[in-house]
Amino acid sequence: MMMIAYLDRQQQQQQQRLVPDGGVELDPDHSILRALDSDATGDVDAAARDFGGMVFLKPARFLRPSTADDVAGAVVLASRSSRLTVAARGNGHSVCGQAMADGGIVLDMRTLGPTMEIVRCGGTAAAVDVPAGALWTEVLSWAVRNHGMAPVSWTDYLGLTVGGTLSNGGISGQAFRHGPQVANVTELEVVTGDGERLVCSPSSASDLFFAVLGGLGQFGVITRARIPLVPAPKMVRWIRVVYGAFDEYARDAEWLVTRDDSAAFDYVEGFVFRNDASDPVSGWSSVPIPAGSAFDPARIPADLSPILYCLELALHHDHIQDDNVDERVKEMLRPLRYLRGLEFAADVSYVEFLSRVGRVEEEARASGTWATPHPWLNLLVSSSDIADFDRTVFKRVLSRGIGGPMLVYPLRRSKWDERMSVAVPDGELFYLVALLRFVTPHAGEAAVKEAVAQNQEILRHCRNKGYDFKVYIPHYESEADWGRHFDGDWTRFIERKRRYDPMAILSPGQTIFSRARPPAAFAASAS
Ligand code: FAD
């Protein structure tokens, strides 16, 4: 459950000391601490926060590993105590404290080396070996600039680390076609909960490889990932079209994501918005591209419903002026049932397209909403339940908008490997629903509590209606909730934890296991 926790000053001061066993402090001159300690109180404070801004848990140390051996050293150090835990912190973009370690060790994965390196995989195939703390934006610029190549699967926002998204899923508009980021990695280097450093892949130590993918940091710290590359397109035709009715929107979106690759767009996403020309966040102004371009409200038909849908599509190409692209796009759009006259399109460079949310970040930083709490909720809802979800949640519960984007677009289960830890709905087609709430600086705590309560109401509704759904980037605090989340795979999840992190040292902020309640204590559920 989402929570708002504030530690009092006294508690915080106590947690600044490293007290692993029966009150006996660790030697601050321990070689690992001496070598890696960020040695700055401000940094420890930074590791006590995340993008969500609702959970504050101060670690004892915020360490800066530069090699996988440093990571292993910190894990071994923790394993010699009875209480210390270790959390890898990517870029801290979790929203419920998932990358925190209350009184434990947080590892700043951003400092991890070495630099990125191209790997030739035979023929023209290539991949990049990436330190897990690299941001996806760094991977993009490195691969395009140095090799004219790029990975195929992205997140919308690229200020996230490779290790962070591989621990969750990594979803964007390419996932219907290429699978999520967890399905686009061929080798990992991992430090397990007993400090062992292993290289794994689908053919070597494969159980560890699949456990770690979507494994919420529970089975190992990823220190390096090998990501396949393809030639990067130069340009993208970026298109938005508007729908008045959800059933038409969903029918077209599902048709588009199930087409053969040869006839498919390269990217399919979509969002819900309010039929309100004066709402600067959730209204018509969110539709034109590039963002902020002029839009004539006279184009809005008079009889549209209050909630509308925008399908966002992209086609890669290599030329700025390409009649062939115009013709192809025209043909591809022809069967769709969007409202004619409400199309928006632009040609942008590939890097510019993938960096589009970076510009939103700049605006949010300027307005102060990047620093305020973010009570976000991400769901994966089966296509069999999405129309009901639309009727109840989008049209009723959220009819006034949420102060940020409301994404809804279909994905294909067959693009996710069942051996991975990530939990997805049962049906072949399911929708990502992302409620990306931004709270204005003057809104206060009441607004955050209201948003959290609304998220809970939506979750209750999904459960009561018996939807086939999962929370994406989940946060639960009870064993029963985690068991329900992983459902038939819960036993496997516990067994993997026993195998790779039996003392429950890793990623305590996920609140699944703890040092006081390690996987062995889950014996009944696991048998
Ligand atoms: P952190 O938040 O630092 O860590 C997340 C979890 O992974 C923690 O439990 C941490 O301990 C663990 N972890 C981190 N690094 C490692 C590692 N190397 N090895 C093992 N465990 C590790 N997600 C999408 O799928 N698609 C999107 O389009 C998308 N857009 C987003 C946009 C914004 C603005 C934000 C804030 C989030 C978005 N996310 C998206 C969610 C994102 O995937 C998660 O926040 C994720 O946690 C990645 O963030 P991070 O790299 O900062 O990881």
UniProtKB/TrEMBL annotation:
| Gene3D superfamilies tied to this protein | 3.30.465.10, FAD-linked oxidases, C-terminal domain, Uridine Diphospho-n-acetylenolpyruvylglucosamine Reductase, domain 2
Q: Which family does it belong to?
A: Belongs to the oxygen-dependent FAD-linked oxidoreductase family.
Q: Which Pfam families match?
A: Cytokin-bind, FAD_binding_4
According to the UniProt entry, what is the EC number of this protein? 1.5.99.12
Which UniProt keyword terms apply here?
A: FAD, Flavoprotein, Oxidoreductase
The organism encoding this protein is: Ensete ventricosum (Abyssinian banana)
What InterPro entries does this protein's entry cite?
Answer: Cytok_DH_C_sf (IPR016170), Cytokinin_DH_FAD/cytokin-bd (IPR015345), FAD-bd_PCMH (IPR016166), FAD-bd_PCMH-like_sf (IPR036318), FAD-bd_PCMH_sub1 (IPR016167), FAD-bd_PCMH_sub2 (IPR016169), FAD-linked_Oxase-like_C (IPR016164), FAD-linked_Oxidoreductases_BP (IPR050432)
Task: Give an example GO molecular function.
Answer: cytokinin dehydrogenase activity
- What are the residue boundaries of the FAD-binding PCMH-type domain, all occurrences included? 55-232
List the GO biological process terms: cytokinin metabolic process
PANTHER family, per database record: CYTOKININ DEHYDROGENASE 7 (PTHR13878:SF112), GULONOLACTONE OXIDASE (PTHR13878)
Spell out the protein name for this chain.
cytokinin dehydrogenase
For whether the record's keyword set contains Cytoplasm, the answer is no
What cofactor does this chain's UniProt record say it requires?
FAD
